[in-house]
Write a structure and sequence with these properties.
Elements lengths: L1 H5 L7 E6 L6 H13 L4 E5 L4 H5 L6 E5 L20 H8 L8 E6 L1 H5 L4 H14 L2 E9 L5 H10 L2 E7 L6 E8 L5 E10 L5 E6 L10 H6 L13 H9 L8 H8 L30
Parallel strand pairs: 1-5, 1-6, 2-3, 2-4, 4-5
Antiparallel strand pairs: 6-7, 7-8, 8-9
Length: 292
């Protein structure tokens, strides 16, 4: 699935490359830029974390770098691009500066820098408006998952059409890409690829990991399980569940009482009494409990 995303199968979508301190996703981000340029698309990069020279390597005509690295907060008199310009109006103006008739690909490096200075609802609203308005062909953003609270990461990833979570591989140069792709119909497809990146930024899929048997639980899901670290067991075994279903509940009418209540003849009345195990009844003195 990673190869399909690099080939542009998610046109009009929002792709998030989610990395962490243990495995950087910037090389994969560069591969997405290179793949879009090979398709002769215009690519606009909002560069907050690395300089233009480090990201581009060599000048490319269709690659437009908007420098937010040297002055991201606008402290100087002439900033190129600041974090406060991350809104629909400013981004639409940047994208219209190119003469290419087709919508361009927007690359954000990184979305974490923006989320540190702009509220997550405002960021999500801008991304949604960009996708909905058709101003871009696709959005590819780098997100450092371990820099934000789980709710922030979940909100942004829920907005994305594809989330690629990168992790270290077993070998030195390998990495693992766990991919979750959502289609417009709501169908969710998950895949996992082991890949390497060549010097020319092409991605080579080493193998596809197929899960056999039970799916391994996500570490974050394990932390959210309220019964994970209890000293007693709240779960029922099969035998315990069967015994629970056979247990007669208290205050349940017997068959005789149900029949009497539902099918009593007119003018007739009966008093039905079901003795309880705790009743203290003396047959020799039935009025023992009366104060006479």
């Amino acid at each position: 699935m990673l190869t399909e995303l690099l080939q542009g199968s998610d046109a009009g979508g929002f792709i998030i490359i989610r990395d962490s301190a243990s495995c950087s996703g910037r090389h994969l981000l560069k591969s997405f830029i290179n793949a879009a340029l090979n398709r002769e698309e215009d690519v606009h990069v909002l560069g907050f974390e690395v300089s233009e020279e480090e990201l581009k390597g060599s000048p490319v005509q269709r690659l437009h770098f908007h420098n937010a690295y040297s002055d991201p907060l606008g402290w100087t008199d002439q900033p190129t691009f600041t974090v406060h310009q991350f809104c629909l109006e400013e981004l639409a103006h940047l994208l219209k500066q190119t003469s290419h008739p087709k919508p361009a690909t927007l690359v954000i490096d990184s979305l974490s820098w923006i989320l540190r200075h702009v509220s997550p609802p405002a960021v999500c609203a801008t991304l949604h408006q960009l996708r909905k308005g058709g101003a871009v062909r696709a959005i590819v953003a780098l997100l450092h998952g371990d820099m934000h609270q789980r709710g922030t990461v979940g909100s942004v990833c829920h907005l994305a059409s594809s989330v690629i979570t990168v992790a270290p591989g077993m070998k030195g140069g390998d990495a693992v890409a766990k991919i979750t792709k959502r289609s417009k119909s709501g169908k969710v497809v998950q895949d996992e690829d082991i890949f390497t990146i060549n010097n020319d930024l092409t991605v080579v899929i080493q193998s596809k990991h197929s899960q056999v048997g039970h799916k391994q639980a996500d570490p974050e899901e394990q932390e959210m399980d309220p019964t994970a670290h209890l000293t007693f067991n709240l779960r029922l075994s099969n035998k315990e569940r069967e015994a629970k279903e056979k247990l007669a509940l208290p205050f349940v009418f017997s068959k005789e009482k149900k029949t009497a209540l539902l099918h009593s003849s007119p003018g007739s009345g009966r008093i039905l009494y079901e003795p309880d195990a705790n009743d203290d009844y003396d047959q020799e003195d039935p009025d023992d409990d009366l104060d006479v």
